[in-house]
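batch_manifest entry 22 of 60
target: Fumarylacetoacetase
source organism: Gibberella intermedia
requested by: lab member K.T.
priority: normal
notes from requester: please return tokens only, no post-processing; we will run our own comparison against the previous entry in this batch. if the run fails, retry once and flag.
--- input ---
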Amino acid sequence: MVQYPFPIPKRSPFPISNIPFGIFHTEDDLDPRPGTAVGDHVLDLRILIRGGLPVDESVKEALESPSLNAFAALAPNVRNSLRKAIQEALRDESSIIYREDTGVIAADQATMHVPMKIGGFTDFMCSLEHVQTMGHMAGYSEVPQNFFDLPAAYNGRASSVIVSGQNVTRPHGIIPGPDGASYAPSQKFDFELEMGVFISNPIKYGEPTPASRARDHVFGFVLLNDWSARDIQFYEMAPLGPFNGKATATSISPWIVTLEALEEAGALLTTEDLGLRGGKNTAIPFLHCPDDVAVQVSTSLSRNGVTEVLLGKSDLKHLHWSPFQMVAHHSSSGCGLETGDLLGTGTLSSSTEQIKEFGSDHNPIRRSGCLAELVLGGTRPFNLPDESELVWLKDGDTVTMEGWAGSGDRVIGFGKVSAKILPAKEFPC
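--- output ---
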């Protein structure tokens, strides 16, 4: 049983002001169920509600599900009422949180799940820096005009979205070689630092939704690592686009940080705050949106058990297009979006000018959201502290991403998304 006040370590990503939502189970109760993260603990929402936590009946019914879809589909004010009830209970020393020990679980005793049933996954490409660098390596002298006119994207694989902590096996694919193409393990395996947007209220088929109203359809955000096998990807892309090179796995952090939490942290900004730039200054009325989101994100690598090394740092607000414009563009053809659909922002890379906000001591090389950019396609190895060279990911490497939003005493976090690379499996030829 925890004692009042609730114990929250300094610099925890999950202070009382956050209250993210996720799905977990424990060894003594294997039933996947909804919870929230507070400090180093997970609160079992079903137990707290059954014990008297005051919530709307629709919330109680939605949280009986093994995913967050039903809860996310509720009206924003109804969803946020649960956050407020939890916060009030945490601040009340007579609440059930401090009277029962079954509803408060040590975080290391909880096994996390993908928090929503994902019907569709779409990955965008909205970083100008990323497009410029990758395009240069591919032989393009200029950024295509369509990048400046719309948020570019492709439909990915929802079936390979996995939760942080689940290992990733090096993929096989069709790869070119001196004696022709062969089916072999990828030798150019890479990560991509992104954020994911989960859809709440669905957008109906045939009813495009402008960017100015897109936030009504956003439940919250997670960290996202869209693993990429570059040798497979680059060979298969012409003329149709990415397929197996981007389908191996997409890792996400387990806790969905809500729009309301980000707004209270001061992370929801306007284009006036940021200065009109990029797609935020679009002349297309359907895509015009005054809102944007600021989240600082980073990627670290651990090789051979050595302490994590920072590889790159960026910010969600550095993208050419905002998450709300991505939602709007996705709906623009009338295809519709369902509750639980996941949208990846695309690789988060920053320009040398943008990273100045991280301070003068930040190494300007560490501004890329993937290895392909950091090592320029393998032509510029990155030196690790043990003096070894990093080019592509090796078996046994662990990649970890973090995200933080807000400033001062209003800082909240996303936790981490982390995974270890396992050797490729052997397949019969």
